[in-house]
Amino acid sequence: MEGKFCEGERIVIKLNSGETFEGDYVKGTADRIDIENIEHHDTGSKVDSMWSFYRREIDCVYRLNVKKAQEIKENTEDSNLANKSENDILLPREEYERLKDVTKNYIYVRTDDKTYFDAVNQISNFESLGVFAIGSEKGRCGRISLIALSTWKENYIFDLKNFRTTHFPKEIAGILECYYIKKVVHNGGLIKDCLLHSHNISMNNVFDTQVCHLLVTKSTSGKCPELLKTIGECLTEYFNFPSSLLTSSMESLNEPWENRPLDENKLIKLSRMVTYLIPLKDHQMGLMLKNFDKAVVDYHNLYTKSKEFQLIKRSATIECTDDIDRIIPFELLKFTNTDIKESKDSIVSDK
Q1: Angle formed by the axes of helices 231-239 and 277-288, to 10°?
Q2: Is the confidence at residue 51, as pLDDT, over 80?
Q3: Is there a single domain that holds both residue 215 and residue 300?
Q4: Taking 90 as the threshold, does the pLDDT of residue 313 lie above it?
Q5: Does residue 1 fall inside a structural domain?
Q6: CA torsion, points 186, 102, 63, 2, in degrees to nearest 10?
Q7: pTM recorded for the entire structure
Q8: Residue 342, pLDDT above cutoff 60
């Protein structure tokens, strides 16, 4: 590892066991990495002392604070551990850390009291909400006991099992049914089915990151992938996150959630499932609207980069001139592999 990282650089280490640790790089050799100011991803627990991780136990190493996103492919034959598996996470460190804080600082609403109504009032002011629910995994054969809603800056977990009403809360139902708030889900067929058939709620204005991924993939390769991706796999695909980021959260979905009070570790895992929906949606929308965004920039440049006499002439007509026609693309949704790569490379530089 010597020479591949700078002292103090923030790195993420994924172990063969599936555990993931984050820390500041201290030093390293071909067979060892030393880090300090350590945080365990799953539990959020922190360690002040320096720890050493050895080549035989490390699966991947990721860099956080990079200027340009660039993945270094795995090379198991190379004697240098950095070349074995070193990747740049395609989000600025500040945004990556912010999303972790959002996950940990969730607001847990235990019952329909003043905290509940304050939370609903706050949520109603946002244009987009991430949605994830416990109990919806069986579709119409299940009933939702916990629902997590995320804004771009806060996560809310509503424990419906403790609510005084036996029906689904009408205030949350109103948010899910309204058309002016975008609900962001991943592979949302089952939650839609559960809400509709078990709770008589029609969730409207939905953005499904699974469907968007299928659209992007088919537009790139000409066909849909053979297998659907989990939310964790999509985060790896688009942001190069460690594949283990959501592993424990997804595994916890198979555990019983009936007992109260709920363990804080389980609530953090639930919060993590909803944290990344809006950032993923925003990135996918950027991919889908790439041609549109370029057309907007080019159109405005016709004004801002023109000479004064050209500007006067343009402002005096409503004609769609030839130079305007040339910058408007024929197809709004058309990707190439180069488009996807360029979009990934621009995440860090744009922010």
Answers
A1: 50
A2: yes
A3: no
A4: no
A5: no
A6: -140
A7: 0.80
A8: no
Same domain, 125 and 72: no
The verdict on residue 55 lying in a domain is yes
Establish if 313 belongs to a structural domain: yes
Residue 184 and residue 320 share a domain: no
Q: What are 132-157's pLDDT values in tens digits?
A: 999 999 999 999 999 999 999 999 99
Residue 219 inside a domain? The answer is yes
* 247 contacts 17 by C-beta, under 8 angstroms: no
Check which CATH number belongs to the domain holding 176 and give it: 3.30.420.10
Tally the domains of the chain: 3
Q: What is the dihedral of CA 259, 265, 266, 270, to 10 degrees?
A: 150
Residue 337 has a CB neighbour count (10 Å cut-off) of: 9
Q: Are 267 and 157 in contact (CB under 8 A)?
A: yes
Beta bridge partners of residue 185, listed in sequence order:
208
Q: From CA 59, how far away is CA 342, in angstroms rounded?
A: 27
Contact 143, 156 (CB under 8 A): no
Note whether 108 and 55 are same-domain residues: no
pLDDT tens digits, residue range 185-214?
999 999 999 999 999 999 999 999 999 999
One domain for residues 333 and 250:
no
Token representation of residue 108: 């847990």
Separation CA 23–CA 29 (nearest Å)? 17
